[in-house]
Amino acid sequence: MGSLSFEKDFEPSAVTPRGLAPPGLIANGDFGEMKRLKVATPTAPRKNLNVAVTEPGSRNNGPSLDCILMNYIDTLSQRINYHIGYPVNICYEHYASLAPLLQFHLNNCGDPFLQNTVDFHSKDFEVAVLNWFADLWEIEKDQYWGYVTNGGTEGNLHGILVGRELLPTGILYASKDSHYSVAKAAMMYRMDFEMVNTSVHGEMDYSDLKAKLLQNKGKPAIINVTIGTTFKGAVDDLDIILQTLKDCGYTYDQFYIHCDAALNGLIIPFIKNMISFKKPIGSVTISGHKFLGCPMPCGIQITRKSYINNLSRKVEYIASVDATISGSRNGLAPIFLWYSLSSKGQIGLQKDVKRCLDNAKYLKDRLQQAGVSVMLNELSIIVVLERPRDHEFVRRWQLSCVRDMAHVIVMPGITREILDSFINDLLQQRKKWYKDGNVTPPCVAEDIGAQNCACSYHKIDFIIP
Ligand SMILES: Cc1ncc(COP(=O)(O)O)c(C=O)c1O
C-alpha cells in the first residue's frame, strides 16, 4: 500500500492529534478486513453528548477538549459493529496516512481541469480519480468532463441539470423507487415530472414508462435510471430503457439519460457491466463514501465534454471556469478517493464485490430458513426484511425502515460475525415479540412479493431454498 511522502522538515506527528486514534478499529494491513472491537453485548444507541462551545478560560472544572473528543470517539467505536442499515463503507485506513493533510485548507472550487491562482487545491488528484472512472465507464479522456461532488445527491442535481440545459422543455422521468434527490431536482429546476411505476422488486416498470413516453411524445425525455435503488437495491435495465425510447420513436437528440449509480456504480462493472458511455447516455454519478469508502461524503460525476459548455461560466473572482453546483469544494475528498482506488485497485474492488454478494446471500438464506420474510435482488447487496417490531431493536442496529420493511446493506466492512450476531439477536427478539400469537409478523407481500413473505397468510407460498 502506498503512502504519501512529505518534505524532510515536515513531521506528521506534530499535526496528528495526540492519542485520538479510534479504539474500536485496529487496522491489520488488509484494506478490506479491518479488525473490529469485540463487543460482547449489544451497546445502546448513542445519546446526545450535549456538547457546548465554551470559552477557553471557563473550562477549569469541566472536561478538556481532548477528553470530550475521546469520549465521542469511544462512543462511535462502540457502535461500529451495529452500523448495518446504511450504505457506508467504514473499512479504510486512510486516516493514519492522510491525517497530516488536515493542516491545509484544500479547496477545489471551479473546474477540476483548470488551475487557478491558488495552490491549495488537489485538482491533480481529482483528475486522476476522474480518469479512473472515465476508463471504468468507457469514455475517452478527451471526451468527458466531470468533478468530485459532495455526494450522490449533488451528482444527480448536476446530471439532471445538464439534461435540462440540453433539452429545456424536457420532462423528467424517474421511477417511484428512485432517490428523493431526483424529485428534489425536479422541484428545484421547476421541471415537469413523470413518476414511473415499479415492480415489487423496485425495478422500473417499462410498460408504464412506455405508456408515459407515448403520452408525452411531443416533448423530449430526461430519464433518471437508477442503478441500484436506495431501499431495495433494484437495478433499472438501461438497455431495456434505451430500447423503449427507440420503440416509442425518440431519436438521440430527443432524450437524455442520467444514471444514478450511487451505490452500485462500483458493483455492477465487476459483474455485468451495463454502464458505458458507448451507449447513448449523458451522465453517471456515484457516491464515493458508499462502496469505495471515504470518511467524508463525496461523489463522482461524469458527463460528456460536449454537453458541459451550456453550463460553464467564466468566473473572474476564482480565475477559472465553473460548471459545478457548489462554489468551494472539498479538496480532501479526491485525495482519499485516489488513495483508496490506488490501494485497492480493480482486483481489490472485485474481491470486495464478491465478498459482499456472498455475505448478502448468506444473510438472506439464514433469515429465510428461520421463517423471516426476506428479499434479495440480483446484483444487489441490500437484504430487505420484515420490519422488526421493536424500535429499540431498530435503533440498536441502526436500521432504515420503510412501511413494514427494513433493510441491511451488506457493505465491505460487514463480516459474517456481525451478520450472525444480528441474526441471533433478531431471532431471539422475535420469539419474545410473537410468543403468545396475539401479535404476528407483518405481511410484506405487497412490498416484496408473496413468495418472499412469511406472514401467517402467505407462509404457504414462501419458498425455502
Ligand atoms: C440511489 C441513490 N441515489 C442517490 C443517493 C444520494 O447519495 P448521497 O447520500 O451521497 O447524497 C442515494 C443515497 O443513498 C441513493 O441510494
Automatic annotation (TrEMBL):
UniProt GO BP: carboxylic acid metabolic process
Cofactor(s) the record lists: pyridoxal 5'-phosphate
GO molecular function: carboxy-lyase activity; pyridoxal phosphate binding
UniProt entry keywords in alphabetical sequence: Decarboxylase, Lyase, Pyridoxal phosphate
One family name in Pfam for this protein: Pyridoxal_deC
Modified residues (N6-(pyridoxal phosphate)lysine): K290
Similarity comment: family membership: Belongs to the group II decarboxylase family.
The protein's name: Histidine decarboxylase-like isoform X1
The species this protein was found in: Nicotiana sylvestris (Wood tobacco)
